[in-house]
């Protein structure tokens, strides 16, 4: 309580008044008072949970407010062990925020997380992992790595999902971990729980995106990942929780362009799945599919470009509108034109229902797909959906209007029917008004121009000056673009010239200048009005310059112009620089067209020559020549009075078209970081046969699927479907599609019944194919579809079996159990309970494996085990054979030599009682019936030390009695020599940094051979590189199969021994031993 | 993806920040604040700062600013931010600065669940509510007494199920399902009273409290009316396409089932007219205003909650008016004349008239005030939409069912 009261006192002292209310929490929220932290510390140090919670809440308040709470770190970290879940959660939040700044202290919490990772509650395990991986401290990378690896094999799919989410985090922390992460992703991708797979795929995409630049380097790894990814997608398709596919889609969106080949196999299923994915996933998935479609399908509009009319330039024809409408409708009726690839059509059809999504982002993604990859005839529904979004919140409106504004530049016909939806309301914010105005201008045609102009007229009088000015610009653009309206517009603009509002007048002059510059007939009237304005001196700089230009350009022949010039000459020095320049031009032009004004012109030039601005002086000097020099004057007309081409005004949105519709870059009109443009579409469809390749297998919970709007699947899709399939009259694609549908639908059902599915499904598929198809090509594709499949199965299963065996050698027991999954997955059996199909997972490819090799050196000499003195004449020696035992490759073969030093033979020599620890094992030797005096009998026993140097004790019994023997293995014997490629060695070593690494300085040794010899004597390792700067050796532990990497670096005056092993004890022992060996 | 989120109040103070990846200093918000200062009501939703992109929304007097570092679909972020605000409203019944400050702990926990590493994790409110219990007084007291927290210690079932919007094991003593069909009329009426554009924007909001896993179908008498629709994810689109029936397993509680659009292509009944005369030019510094509102095409229903919001030109200094019904107020700063009429009961037509004082010498020529009209008409859907029946499968009990129709003014705009 004292804490609280002192806190209140402080508040009075410091005069903090922002939140003087009684609630201490909210008060603390706004209190920058540092003394107060003392009592927060006291509260945290106390034993009451409620106080701790209160303190944590206040601290979170400080964080939320952006106040620095880092000095509380030690007090907070302690509470990471709290039993109270809420306190714990808040501590987690705190840790994530400040761990980066307080790295050393953050390490204190790590062990708690490691414990929490083993909590029985999946939610706690998951959140521990989430936080652990969010702590951006590079020192803990190995720990996070380990945690991810363990969690990836967790029982709970939720935890595994979290593990997948953690992967990108770790990756961003330490990109060097990539290879290891990829292997984990690999495993996660082979997961049975859909929830996990999606996230795994997401992680994959995050981690591997950059890899594209390294693709040559790590090609093998990529290919390793590719296959599981595809199989994941398969599995996702069969997934009960479409929720999951969302994460998967995000993954793909990150992978993107270069990886598009991955999607081939799963493309059709992804399309079918689209509608069931959660909205965020749909968004990502659509983005991916758009890129895919753009990469592999030809532009549908290209093929029909002869009949394509909606891309027509904006303003040319008069009969534009009626001509536009009719063919569009006609084409729509035959929209399943043969030009479109079947898969392309499938995609578009699947995406279409998503236009009805409540999520504006999804609608926009569909619009993006249709705009970039769809035929023009399909666009009207898209336009309709976009119009619907105009009712959404302002921010959405803004983005949508932006998109529409850019679409209308060359797809005007699309939005023409919705012209009225873009009428401006006074309540709209300015930027919305401007966008609407832009669209209205783009949309206006001959027919609609009067309506638009009438609207614009009301806008001109708006209170919003910026908007009014933009309206005038818009009128100008209309005048230029629609020939029949030029007169009306110009009249309106000229009227505006006499408005009392200066801004409007200025804007109008600028616009009139542009319009008249376009060669309008009413130039004379415009000039008259402009000159009147100039005489009244009511124009601001810019507008005045424009007015002068106007007079010079179009009124040079009029006597009035001379009067204007004379009037302006009087106030020449006070004019703006721009105006001066224009006046100079006017003077020259007048002197050419009306020679009697020559003196006036010369006067102006004189004035300009002594102007303060060097631009004006330069111009005067140059133009002055035309007044003084006779020859130049003769040429004057050709220089100054040439006909100029008419001005054109383009929408400012035109240059946005280079960006993909609906992207950030498109909105801001510049390439955002990480923007990847869509590829150009190919001339012909690519990869049809790749897509036709059916993915290994799917079990889909059909009931659920049907229930939950089996995607896109309009009635026509399902083979059982109604007559609507006749809609697709084009035989080629319909047969193709139906066939693939049949395949998909029959397969799962069949699979549940029998193991022998392959033949049935393929036959059924080809049956249905042959039933419905009448074209050559679909036969081909059907062949393709079952051929690669069987092939694929073969090729798939082979690597799997080999890799599982190799993998088996390097994984721990637990992992071995889990590997059963991957073994099982190579079998074509189904577990009906799990949603997903087990499809083959791939291990690392061929030569990158770790191979055990025979020991480099075996010492013949034995170590005494039993001495003849204490054992009544029986002696035994131990030697390490460094061979794997027959009965289990965890066991070391240990040779024993028994010698009878007595005169009488020994009877019945055998192993008696033994005390083995947990997980330790022993395979004893066959009992020796008699040991003759003086004889020595060698036997071998198998010992599994479980990677520990703790001695194994056992009893050797014989006729003399029982003797206790104890075998303590040198650390170097606990391993088995293995070889691998040097790259692999380096890679593995990178994974075993940090706490898993142990370095020792040893005395100087020069000769590499000698070093190797010493190393071989000490430890059973194999050389990877036995020459050069850095000598590399590798072995692996007998029981856990963890790698032991040893390197010896020869330095100036010493050698550096470094051992890496995930078992830290082993690493340090080994390094010590080697160092000692060198010292010998 | 979303890196950080800042919540800013209308005064420009960042009062909450949350980072999902590395910490981005809050000074990045200056770009937003600058834009906000320049024009408080006109901040573009996407701002490009040198190294970041700020995507923001404004709701309930607070602005949520998401900071991204890379190319991302702006609508994705905007949609997500709106979902965040929706969730707050769902939890705390409103989303204002004070409420967020009061509940900052829950807010922080929610944000933590909704986004992981910049990717949306759980945005369905029923999953969130199982993870983090919404605060209420009873629970607060119970928590203090029992020492429990409002953070769940188990994983909600919905997370792994295929109906993520509904949790299992819902139980009610009274099973009820209410549907509100709300239609909003958007219109622009020009000076002469002609309709420039008119559209109907409708939505069906539901309050469904049913036990178990009910499967509902909603049928309309005249589904052809719909021009364009969008659905809650629970609606089976296929059935809608083939039979024009809404078939769905509803989420628990309040949600928007569908929204639809009846475009300018079809004729829309305008239920109200405004007769106006504003003579600024004639009388020098004294101008006259005369406004009359009357019903039109209301199908016999009464107009309720009628109010007019007139944005006067800048030159208008003050108004002295008399209204024969309701109250009026004029804000000389924002130049908005508010006339709250209430119910229109025939034959008396509400009228307001009087003089308007105009700043001397001001330019009155270009001024064109506009009127925003608000009204509601109960028991009528202006499009004529009618629900024909509601069927329930998958549960044994008989629920109470109810449908309510309301027509409202949306952006109903009269130019003067």
Automatic annotation (TrEMBL), chain A:
It is a peripheral membrane protein. Coiled coil: none annotated. Residues 713-728 have a biased composition (Low complexity). InterPro entries: AP3_beta, AP3B1/2_C, AP3B_C, AP_beta, ARM-like, ARM-type_fold, Clathrin/coatomer_adapt-like_N, Cnd1_C. It holds the Pfam family Cnd1. SUPFAM superfamilies: ARM repeat. Gene3D superfamilies: Leucine-rich Repeat Variant (1.25.10.10). It is found in: Cytoplasmic vesicle, Clathrin-coated vesicle membrane; Golgi apparatus. GO terms for biological process: intracellular protein transport; vesicle-mediated transport. Residues 301-340, 693-813 are annotated as: Disordered. Residues 729-744, 768-785 have a biased composition (Acidic residues). One of its GO terms (cellular component) is clathrin-coated vesicle membrane. Keywords: Cytoplasmic vesicle, Golgi apparatus, Membrane, Phosphoprotein, Protein transport, Transport. It comes from the Eukaryota. Residues 810-950 form the AP-3 complex subunit beta C-terminal domain. Residues 309-327, 745-755, 786-797 have a biased composition (Basic and acidic residues). PANTHER family: ADAPTOR COMPLEX SUBUNIT BETA FAMILY MEMBER. Belongs to the adaptor complexes large subunit family. Subunit of non-clathrin- and clathrin-associated adaptor protein complex 3 (AP-3) that plays a role in protein sorting in the late-Golgi/trans-Golgi network (TGN) and/or endosomes. The AP complexes mediate both the recruitment of clathrin to membranes and the recognition of sorting signals within the cytosolic tails of transmembrane cargo molecules. AP-3 appears to be involved in the sorting of a subset of transmembrane proteins targeted to lysosomes and lysosome-related organelles. This is AP-3 complex subunit beta.
Automatic annotation (TrEMBL), chain B:
GO terms for cellular component: clathrin adaptor complex; cytoplasmic vesicle membrane; Golgi apparatus. Its main location: membrane. It comes from the Eukaryota. Belongs to the adaptor complexes medium subunit family. It is found in: Cytoplasmic vesicle membrane; Golgi apparatus. Keywords: Cytoplasmic vesicle, Golgi apparatus, Membrane, Protein transport, Transport. CDD domains: AP3_Mu_N (cd14837). PANTHER family: AP COMPLEX SUBUNIT MU. It is a peripheral membrane protein. Residues 174-415 form the MHD domain. Gene3D superfamilies: 3.30.450.60, Mu homology domain, subdomain B (2.60.40.1170). The keyword Transmembrane does not apply. InterPro entries: Adaptor_comp_med_subunit (IPR050431), AP2_Mu_C_sf (IPR036168), Clathrin_mu (IPR001392), Clathrin_mu_CS (IPR018240), Longin-like_dom_sf (IPR011012), MHD (IPR028565). This is (diamondback moth) hypothetical protein. One of its GO terms (biological process) is vesicle-mediated transport.
